[in-house]
Amino acid sequence: MSAEPPSNNRARTTWHEFCDVLKDAGDLLTEPAVPQDEQTQAEGLRYLSRMARAALEWYVEFNDPAFPILYRPAHETIKLGADNPDNLYQKAVIDGRHEYRLKGQRGSVDYLSMATSRGSYAENFTQVETGFLDGDKLAIEADGSFEVIISEQQHSGNWLPVSKDSESLLIRQTYRHRELEEPAEITIERLNTDAVPAPLELMTAIAHFEKAIAFYRNTTRMFADWSQKISEQPNTLPLWDQAFCQRVGGDPNILYYHGHFKLQTDEAMVITLPEIPKCQTWNIQVDNYWMESLDYRYHRVSLNQAQAEVSHTGSVTIVLSGVNPGCTNWISTAGHSEGTLCFRWVGAEGCVDPQVVVTPLNKVLNDEHLGLSRT
Prior knowledge:
23% helix; Jelly Rolls
């Protein structure tokens, strides 16, 4: 029977395993289905680095359920799984055997939801909901403050359920006009503990790295597979399997459409919504091949219900192109010839399947029958 390796060897072995999985992920860039143009390859290289940062933040830095911290798992420079440009995402690791309290100020952001889940992309590619609280049902004090108890046993007031195997909390805050609304300010604390964090132990650090390794390997592959599946139906925007969306952490209030675009520089995609069902909001966004939202800091790559112009018939026509045709409901490819799309409907009473047509850009510029207002 071999002797237990010295602790420094175990730490080194774990680090080497982490580095090896980073190296192996580079094979994704040259798979047959992956576009080989320089832009997709450049963004793929950056995507792999971003996912490495996500793995370290999610599973090494913020992975103590006894002392949870709300952090931003996706933002302007870590993007994954068609992250919503209208969203502020906040995440914390929890343990369903314990109780927690959220405290906050509601702010003015349009949509707020809180969900607990079991499973993770590091384990089994799923995040199954174990509790959900819609912000519309949140009891708020006169000064805008609120508290939410997270527990397995039902609690008076604002209560977010968990099960014993719950592992994470995800908060979505969705803007209609990001520049005009104030997000909710929220903190989390575990109840019934006066302890302080113990010094980091080697086996704890190794366990955290093992989860980071599994997350990185699973997630980079998963989103590449999603993108390849989406691109099998070029220039379409179909409704996705909603049961699947829920299994991987989707919001139960949201209907998800995922689509693809591939356009020449002189082409545009015209997306028509014949009517808008009653809903809290909707939004459409443009993503690259790696299912990262395009850089919404500098480009108009998304449009939501509050920003879109509706025709006198109740329809909405959206134009996706690299050049602004001068119409109100334009979203930009930001220089991309190919990528993915995500269309969300929040609290919709029914579905509207978007009608998609690829047309010459000069037709969009000149066709008055499209019902587009000119800017």
